[in-house]
Each structure stands twice: as structure tokens, then as C-alpha cells.
Specification:
Blueprint (H helix, E strand, L loop, with lengths): L21 H14 L3 H15 L9 H4 L8
Length: about 70
């Protein structure tokens, strides 16, 4: 049996749960309503296009750099 991380001819979508700032959530809701698409579809599209836009050397950023200023508070 093939693991989910092993590429195959037909990859199925994977469901994930993330935590985002409230203002980002509100912006996603407004944009998804304006475009007439689901929040899930819009979020997946934005993540995918952002990853495609990365330059090859940006794949090696540290985790803190990749978070684009989103800071966790203890």
C-alpha cells in the first residue's frame, strides 16, 4: 500500500486543519463570498499558487521565516 506522501499517478486531496489570525479569516470569507467559491476552495487555491510562486532557494527558508511574521505568543 502506498503512503499518502508517496507520489502516485492520482493524488487525492488531503484534509488539514490550520489556525490563522482572525483578520486573515475575515479576509478569506469576504474574498470567497465575492468570488462565489467556498472558503476551502479559495484557501487551497491561494496556498497552491503561493507555493508555485516560490523561487527554488526559498524552499530552504527556516520555519520562522516561512511564517511571514505570524508570531506565536506563549
Amino acid at each position: 500500500m502506498r503512503s499518502q506522501s508517496t507520489p502516485g499517478p492520482f493524488l487525492r486531496p488531503v484534509r488539514v486543519t490550520i489556525t490563522i489570525p482572525y483578520n486573515a479569516y475575515q479576509a478569506l470569507i469576504e474574498r470567497s463570498n465575492h468570488q462565489g467559491r467556498s472558503l476551502s476552495n479559495l484557501a487551497a487555491y491561494l496556498i497552491e499558487t503561493s507555493l508555485q510562486a516560490l523561487q527554488p532557494n526559498e524552499h530552504h527558508q527556516s520555519r520562522s521565516e516561512a511564517m511571514d511574521g505570524y508570531q506565536r505568543h506563549a
